[in-house]
Amino acid sequence: MESIDIRELNEKIERHSAFVTNLMAGMDQAIIGQKHLVESLLLGLLSDGHVLLEGVPGLAKTKAIKTLASLIDAQFSRIQFTPDLLPADVIGTMIYSQKDGEFKAKKGPVFANFILADEINRAPAKVQSALLEAMQERQVTISTQTYELPKPFLVLATQNPIEQEGTYPLPEAQVDRFMLKVVIDYPKLEEEKMIIRQNIKQEDVKIRPVMGTGEIEEARKVVREVYLDEKIEQYIADIVFATRYPEKYNLKELKGLIGFGGSPRASINLALAARSFAFIKHRGYVIPEDVRAVAQDVLRHRIGLTYEAEASNVTSEEIISKILNKVEVP
């Protein structure tokens, strides 16, 4: 394996990641606090991975996604998911043109760079399966024709907690397609006061693009150059394997609580997210802290809990914390 000049790589990453500071500053103009939310959206953007945001209404989930799309000169589309939504409302449909005497495809709102799928768990299964093809294959099939989606293509979905009325649990296959599932919490007291002040003034913050889609595509290539040592690879594999076979990692007490563990997609996404996290921190190599920082968001929706765990009110977050505390850090 060729030797890597870490200093040279660090300098390259520092140069190419300079735009992150501008994006963060732009987000701070519109969003007060919610640093974790902003970082998660950037991780999804740089890793080419979809992001699922969960939290009660009013926590600036939609606003954060719209602000990010405004900061990048890209096509933005918002789809409000409702129980009566049809697949054609998302992907489009064939319409008869009297002028040409033939059917033509009328493309739906999914043909954009940034898709805000608002309250995604309010729509039935048929709509979810239509969106699933777009998310996984980056293409859409209307009638017999298949159409490529624009690049970059990113689904940023929001959902209300499942306990709320009128929500459908998302299928496991679809949830697994989201690189990150981020749980949004209430702002801190000082932040809440700042939010009140900002909204009382009613000053419209003008968000201007700071970069284009071409620069995002370029940044994604550079993110893949971030150095991932073999020891870090082993650490990632150990964390994911501990979700499948906890008894091999001296975590026998978790055996009866985990229905199923993370798939290989969990390992891939953990490595990708850790690389993107290092990039955001202007660093050319991944350290164990990067893996730990993204582990909860990458794994929380990929661990199936048994009835025993649900009866004991054990959450996937608690299981991940136990694993991170037990698995040996390189």
CATH architecture grouping of the largest domain: 3-Layer(aba) Sandwich
What is the gyration radius calculated from CA atoms? 21 Å
DSSP helix count? 14
Name of the CATH class of the largest domain = Alpha Beta
Mean pLDDT: 86
Topology-level CATH name of the largest domain:
Rossmann fold
Report the strand count. Answer: 13
CATH homologous superfamily assignment of the largest domain: P-loop containing nucleotide triphosphate hydrolases
| Percent helix | 40-55%
Distance between the termini: 21 Å
Strand content: 15-25%
| Number of spatially distinct domains | 2
Report on the biggest sheet.
5 strands, parallel
How does the helix and strand content classify structurally?
Answer: alpha/beta
